[in-house]
Amino acid sequence: MDICIFPGTFNPIHRAHLSMAEFILKNYNFDKIIFVPSYIPPHKELDKSMAEHRFNMVKLAISGNKKFGISDVEYKSNGTSYSLITVQKIKNEYSVKGRLNFIIGTDAFLNVKSWYKADELKELVHFLVFPRGDDSIINEEFDGYSYELVDAPKSDISSTELRNEHYELTTNKVKDYIKKYELYN
Fold it and tell me: For 92, what's the count of Cα atoms within 13 Å in the CB-facing half-sphere?
């Protein structure tokens, strides 16, 4: 099975996340996109009591697409979510040969060298980098990393803005979930 992972905090997941995954499915012909909600991301302050809610919102958001899946590998860890460990576990679980494809935004990719054991991680993945902000700063500094800039429309939708504003850019199921549990009030 040819898969691609889409790790993230998804706080909350929104339509731009889903559009990115659909774009990758359509243009790269993967069998499945596996969403991987983090438990505790190492580079963000996040209330760990929200981990279950974030996981559940991703499940709801992707439920209509048979080519979308969800992994609980980070959620079950109950600890800091390091991409290297996640990638190793998913490669084993799905018997992935070669590099594992990894969806990421430009903003996160620019910091990839500071990630936990980045030199080991870069040997295991091929990054599919979505445009966000100023993409022109991605250059030869990333030699040794297998990556490509995805030729997709730029999306600068921010989960932070969604939490602070309205939820019209989430799916109806996620909106209902947020209201039911009174999240982000």
Answer: 7
